[in-house]
Every structure is written in C-alpha cells, then in structure tokens.
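seq/struct pair 1
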Amino acid sequence: MESKRQQKFSRLIQKELAEIFQREVPHLFSGAFISVSIVRVSPDLGLARTYLSVMNSKTSNEMLLQELRANTKTIRHLLAQRIKSQVRVVPELVFYLDDSAEYAANIDKLFSNIDIPPAPEEDEDDDTYTR
C-alpha cells in the first residue's frame, strides 16, 4: 500500500516523463509513441519503477527497451530540470514494458475461441419439483 506521499510523487513523475517522451526526446526512439502507464515509487522516493506502453515502434519492443535503458541518464537529467524545485532527490529510473494491453487482447482472443454449447431445453411436462 503506497502512502499519499508516494502516490503524489509517482503522479508527478508520470506526468513529467510523459511530457519528456512526447515533446523532448521522440527523436531518440525513431518516432515510437511512448506513454507512461504507471509509476511505482519506493518508500524512500529514491527509485521509480516506470511502466511504459509503446506504439508505432519500428523496432522490436525489446530493442526499444534497451535503447531506453541506454538513455536513462539523459531522461533522468531532463526530469531533474523539470522537478528540481519540487523534490529533494531525483529518483533513479528503471523502465519496464507494460504488457497489460497485450495480455488483455490475448485473454479476449481466448474467450472468443471458446465454443459453449447451448443449454439443453427443459420439458414443460417434467415434474422434477414435486412437493
């Protein structure tokens, strides 16, 4: 259970990182659209686990994740410039791919492939409930 402080801090980081990915560094990721799904912050606010959704990527998601991790220092520096007056310490950033949309699509696909036979019709003359 996150504290209110952690929740506020994670929302701030999520908002600022989203703006950074969309406005300041889209050239680093060859035009891929990166959105920040959720940010989980450690209790000491020193580590921010950031889950990202990627669309329109020309490379595989794993290659993009490696590129993200290679540019973590630059992204953290841009984040620091934006939030330095609001926080004491800029957290370390760890990026993960958020695969919840793919997971949901896979579950929907599984449900659509299920063949459920219709229920057998009951006879009106059947007196199974006799008193």
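seq/struct pair 2
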Amino acid sequence: MRKIDDFKPFVPSNDHEVSRAFYQHMGFKINWTEGDVCEVDTNFGYRFLLLDKNHNNYAHSLMLHFMVNSAQEWYDHFTEIKLAEAFNGTKVAPPKLMPWGLLITYVWDPAGILLHFAEIPQDNN
C-alpha cells in the first residue's frame, strides 16, 4: 500500500521576515529556516512551509482553514497580543456565524492570506 508520511503546503509571503514574525507573534513556532524557506509549526500537529516569494500575488487567493475548539478564544488571543496593530496590512475579524454552520474568526496575514479559525458551535453538534 502506498503511503504519504507528511503533507505541508507551501505558503507565500511578500516579506519573509515580516511573515515569520507574524506567525511567531500568533504563537506558532519556526522549526527551521533554510535559505528562503522555513517550516512553521502551529503547535497543534500541523506545519506549513513559508516561502520568501509570492508568485503572481498568489497570497491573495490562498486560504488556510484551522478547526479550533473556540473561535472566540482565538479572537480574544489575537486582540490581546494586538496582532492587527503589530503588522501592517493585517486584519482580525470577530467571530461570525456563517450560513454553513461554522463560527469563524478571520485573520488576514501581512501578505493577504486569509486564515479561518473555525469551530462547530455546540448547538450544531
């Protein structure tokens, strides 16, 4: 049986140093850096490779979706660490219940990538 041992998407940045600092400020960890790539560890079992490139402005088309236990707690965390104030171009939206049933806190990273911190509300279980 063929097996895949790992899967990590490549995530673009406009300014590698700023994007690395952004993800570290969020509470993620940089496992290693090699040239124009670094591995970002979310600290909850998932990683991605942050690139020092943004071909054809790909970042504005990319979204990362994180299922979490509380969209409100993530929003509170981002507010407490002043994420939007610390990084130019970054935005954080309060949790919103979407028509498809998920409660989502949206975050736009410095390159324009849209991050979803989504939970299934208790009354939807």
